[in-house]
Design brief:
The protein has 126 residues and is an all-alpha fold. The protein has helices spanning 12-53, 56-76, 81-88, 96-101, 104-111, 114-120.
Amino acid sequence: MIVNDKSEPLNPENEKIMQDKMDTYMEASRHLTEAFEENRRVNDTAADSFWNSLSYEDKCNAFHAVVSKIFQGDIQKKGSYRYVLYDVFGFGPDMYIRGMDCGYMALHNSIMDDEQFAEANKWMLE
């Protein structure tokens, strides 16, 4: 049963309206989740295809470049996830979720100890 701010039951008509809105929201949320998952699969396929198209030398250079930037941003600068994405790699906000999808956020967070993690994420507590 849905309740209002005063913890009183809604009348049946309003409860039906609220339930219909909740059902609509849940359906939209399901579609959005499916779209994000499809986008992740497309990005994974494109990245795999790109990697497989590279010569051995190009793979070595790509690996070196990416790991060097992660080392610079995460180890040397002790930067936040956004700092490394935006300032070290030079990406825009469009890469935020893609960085999560490919595992970079998990990698980034695993590099820091608890104190570093708290410092880098203190803005969330302010």
